[in-house]
Amino acid sequence: MSASSSTRVRQALELLQMIGIPREQQNERSALTLLALADIKPRKSWRKTSAPLRRITEMMDWMREHYEVRYAPNTRETIRRQTLHQFVQHGLLIENPDKPDRPINSPHWCYQLSAEALGLLKSFGTPAFKTQLRKFRKNPAASALQARHRDLPRESVRMPGGAIIEISAGGQNTLIRAIVEEFAPRFVRSPKVILLGDAANKEIISDDATMKELGICLPQRGKAPDVLVHDIQRDWLVIIEAVTSHGPVDQKRKNELTDLFAKVRPGLVFVSAFPDRRTFTKFHAAIAWETEVWIAETPDHMIHFNGERFLGPYQ
Known about the structure:
The protein is α+β, with helices and mostly antiparallel strands. The chain has helices spanning 3-19, 28-38, 56-67, 76-89, 115-122, 129-137, 140-151, 172-187, 208-214, 251-260, 277-283; strands at 93-95, 111-113, 154-158, 164-168, 191-198, 202-206, 227-231, 236-242, 267-274, 292-295, 302-304.
């Protein structure tokens, strides 16, 4: 990325911070998305901000052409869920201004800067910016999103490599934290978390570069498991469902996941994770054969459902 490109990305990040966009959206992906929707090329002045109608694929093409940043095709859903949804809620964007009744599954679904956001971005770097910023932050949509973000309890999760991330506190996320901190270090060799869901905020980690390297393509995130961990040493893909009220790896779910990951390079290992034995007993009759069960309250042990090996892929 050139110096001028880096400057524009940095400025876009500053804008997102000043606007009050949640911290999870203060990243390069969101900055580039904002630049694409404002049509701000590396050497273009913010005063010349425009508001083209753009679909996600058009944004990605624009990023590649003007900022030399290439996102894999399966990143579309990440951009939609982890950037565009929040921009819309915050009042930055309008969905389908040309056809508000467009079907949700339409390939023509598009986004455009709101009139308020357009005025704000045009004023960036001018004396009028502070006034425009105060005006924009009074937008009820932006205020509501900020309040939800501040009031949401958080808890820290230590990743296998030592990095700390934050997820929403309580519920299923308590079990997801145990999977990362207790299960992975015990049963996965050289673990690398490449996909992690948050019950409240959907995806928290989506390592698209590693997934592409492993041959993973997730066109529909709704079908993705709660956690994906790559066992680097043995080249296994450990597919984990966190079960608190529903969702163990029964035969139907195993078939879905097998089809979803049919073309990946690593061997597949399926794990149903439960917070305690009491929850496990509610679902034990549905667990699919040739899968594993891990219970957080007894983290040193696993239950193996038949098959010729313990904790390994079946090809």
